Amino acid sequence: MKKIIIAILFVPFLGLAADNFLEFGDVNFGRDFKEKSKWIFKLGSETIHYVSKFPEYKGEHVTVESEEADNVNGYGLSLGRDFYLGGGVSTSFQISGLYSKTLDKVTGKAAKDINIDFSEVRTAHQMTAYEASFALNYLFDYKVVDIQPFIEFGAGAGEVLNQKEYHRRGFPSETEGSEEYNVSVKEKFALTRLSIGINFISYKGLMSYIKVSSVPIFITKRETDGRTNLKGTAVYQDVSSKDSSLNEKQNLTMISIGIGSYF
Amino acid sequence: MKKWMYLLIIFIGAMGCDEFTEEYLYDENDPEYALALQLAEQECISGATIFNVLDTAGDFLNTEQEGKIYKISQDANNPTTLYVYIQQVTASAMTIAVNSSETGYRKIINFTKTNHDELLAALKTMACNSLYDDYVSVSGLDDNDQAKLTWKRESIGKADDDDADDIPELYDRETNVYVFDKDLPLLFYYWNAEKTSKRVLEEDAAEVETKSVITITDVTSEQDCDQDNSSSSIPITACDFNDVTSFPTCDVTVNSTIFSTSSYGNNLISLSSTNSKTCTLLQSAGVTIQN
User: Fold this and answer.
1) CB–CB of A113 and B43 under 8 A?
2) How many CB atoms lie within 10 A of CB B234?
3) Could B9 and A8 be called an inter-chain contact, meaning their C-beta atoms sit closer than 8 Å?
4) Phi, psi (degrees; rounded to nearest 5) at B6
5) Is B33 on the interface with A (CB under 8 A)?
6) CA nearest to B180, candidates B151, B153, B154
7) Residue B181 pLDDT greater than 70, yes or no
8) Which of A19, A121, B49, B152 could tie A106 with a disulfide, CB 3.0–4.6 Å?
9) Most B CBs within 10 Å: which of A20, A46, A171, as the mutation test of the B interface?
10) Using the beta-carbon criterion (under 8 Å), do A73 and B6 form an inter-chain contact?
């Protein structure tokens, strides 16, 4: 992961190295684009620290807490317009989409020397969100790569599907030795976002960025669907529920890195 | 083009964020460990094609084998030829006559359906119970024709006394590879084999290795019968099973748990005579303990 981050942040440098090798003079982004308004396109990788809510459960090989924090990884895509205000200051308006999908699978082998998949826990998160955002940028016009710190505000909406599946097979000599936990929780939310970050921009407008965001979300609807079963009983418990009038706040942290282009 | 390469880097990075891990639930000290072993064995057995094949092939109601004659040849290290005739097959037993120029091998073997089932059960356990992995392995579990059992056994006469090489000073070791073939009665595994013996019986002596390869072929003509029996003092040809009344009758005992140790000389089957005579399966080169 670290290598990928470094590779992405190196994007503008690579572009310069390949296209302007041994050229002298100020040939960077500032010369061509600095005092102009332009379109911007960004594509990035997002990691969101998300707290899921599941019905509690204590099985032989898994314990599900009512709240579980996971990192959800995905892609972000945005398109916008950058307006030059003067003195290195610009502002940009963007619309963005986010799609995240993360699967964490833990296979329980019976023993080190017994190659049997005896239990399995799958935790999956799938998040989609869209938003409109506004950013204030200031460009430091350096010779090789321009550096542009920015602060960004956004608002939007989204939904997340959290799923947890667990099963234990049970031994043949056990009575009702199997276990199951199969629950999916769908949440709808509104979001606001405050981000700070840095763009690294090469002379042709090729850029990379990194930003850290605080994302308060307001969960408005939660729908839980599923059933559970414990060892020793054949009874399955239905844990389905529906709450359409929630106003539950959760603060998410998001880290984004990516590349983009001014054009 | 370059930009698309960079996009690709991101996609690959994001895709690689799914996590797959494994954990071990039990160890030898847990009571569930024995149950897990049992489950693994059951799964291995039910998933192995060859066991169903051998089970079906051992259907004694199928009299296809009746009347067939096989020639069993052991190679030059201990040259022996046996002729085996499937005299009779009933639902409960198979009568097998064995003839040879060596009178000690002549016998009538009563191989029962129970023997067949016990032998197959032992093979299943040897193949699928990991407790015996150190000295037993079975290949061909997904095969439709035959399974190959490799079984290592040893007897240590004197343990290593110099700690230099961790090799005992005196030992007898044998590695036998047996083939269980669906086209032959299961008992024939003993004659469808390669038996290798390695031994040091005197201190500071070099290891002596001997090997016997035993093969089974169908007898399809009289010529197949005569050549190895020409020097016989017994006035019957090897394939003539009309007068076998003087042959000892032998019952088969399957030693169902004998593979729980790796002792030299352990055999899955043993023969016992019903009329106080000797029942010997086959003596191979270098193998001192035989039925």
Assistant:
1) no
2) 15
3) yes
4) -65, -40
5) yes
6) B151
7) yes
8) A121
9) A171
10) no
Please give the average per-residue pLDDT across B143-155, as a whole number.
93
pLDDT tens-digit profile of A176-232?
A: 999 999 999 999 999 999 999 999 988 777 888 999 999 999 999 999 999 999 999
B114-127: average pLDDT: 94
Q: Which residue has the higher pLDDT, B230 or B143?
A: B143
Mean pLDDT along residues B259-284: 84
Q: Which of A257, A192, A255 is nearest to A43 (CA)?
A: A257
Q: Is A44 near chain B, with CB under 8 Å? A: yes
A113 chain-B contacts, CB cut-off 8 A: 130
Give the pLDDT of residue B17: 67
The torsion angles phi and psi of B192, rounded to 5 degrees, stand at -115, 75
Q: Please report the pLDDT score of residue A235 as a whole number.
A: 94
Report the pLDDT value the prediction gives residue B264, as an integer from 0 to 100.
83
Average model confidence (pLDDT) across chain A: 87
**Residue among A116, A174, A263 with most chain B CBs within 10 A, to mutate:** A116
- Sequence-distant (≥ 6) Cβ neighbours of residue A69 within 8 angstroms: A49, A50, A51, A52
Length of chain A: 263
Question: Is B266:B153 a contact under the CB 8 Å cutoff?
Answer: yes
Chain A residues touching B26 at Cβ < 8 A: 110-111, 114
Taking the C-alpha atoms of residue A263 and residue B2, their distance in angstroms, rounded to an integer, is: 16
Please report the ipTM that was assigned to this predicted complex. Answer: 0.74
Per the listing, tokens 């590695």 go with: B175
CA torsion sign for B259, B263, B268, B272 is negative
Residue of A nearest to B25 (CA): A110
Task: Calculate how close chain A gets to B168, using CA atoms only, in Å.
Answer: 28
Q: How many residues does chain B have?
A: 291
pLDDT for A30 equals 52
Residue A246 at interface with chain B, using a CB cutoff of 8 Å: no
Query: Which positions 208-227 of A are in contact with B (Cβ < 8 Å)?
Result: none
Phi and psi at residue A221, to the nearest 5°: -150, 135
d(CA B98, CA B107): 5
Contact (CB<8Å) B21/A174:
no
**Which residues face A130 on adjacent strands?**
A97, A157
In chain B, what residues touch A118 (CB-CB under 8 Å)? 25, 36, 39
